[in-house]
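Write out this protein's structure.
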Amino acid sequence: MKILTVYTIVILLMAPKVMAQETMIETVQKAMPSVVSVIAENEQTFDTPQSGIDPKTGRILTRHELKQATLERSGAGVVIDSSGLIVTSTHTIYNAKNIFVILYDQTSLPAQVLGFVSQYDFAFLRIQPPSPLSAISWADSDQIHLGDEIVTVGHSNLLKEAISGGRVIGIGVKGGKNIRTTEGEETKLIQVNINVYKGDSGGPIFDRKGNFVGLMVAGQMKAARSSFAIPANQIREQSKKFLK
């Protein structure tokens, strides 16, 4: 009888934590339609030499044939305005000939580059959706603290639309305290204990309420479960010039 009583207490103590985690996942799932895939295409020319022996002279002849191939880079993006304004990472789309955004319902639409933000690794795209999109809700990224719970939605080839949970483990300035942008402001970054895989760059991190906290841009190569995100406030400020 005593053993049963002890087990009952343990279950009751664990239940609120499990319920809280389920609520957080359900909240983030509601924000998932604002997460998109971004495909950038480049055409590259390859020289494919072919050698053979001339039957008349016995000499080795080489013919150079140029072939074109389409190379793709993939990443993620976030709908920040229902009219079709998307934010993604610069390195995914830089110098791309064609860019496509794949929406939550798998609709693929061509995208136009509106502008790059040089001091950060993010850029803005414009698409023309047939109907208003589901846009993110903004968090105040200046109010985040070390240890805050966050969630990201992965878009890598390994895990599509995978929800990963973690915490904020660092809040700092890119390159050190003495590095500032041309406008004089510090380039801030958020460090989280979540891995970034190929294709995840440009994806969002959300807080417990499903609000947009930052944009994933890079993983730390020498450390497992350590990645960086651009604070949402930096993105929101830059996006004002592109809003209709």
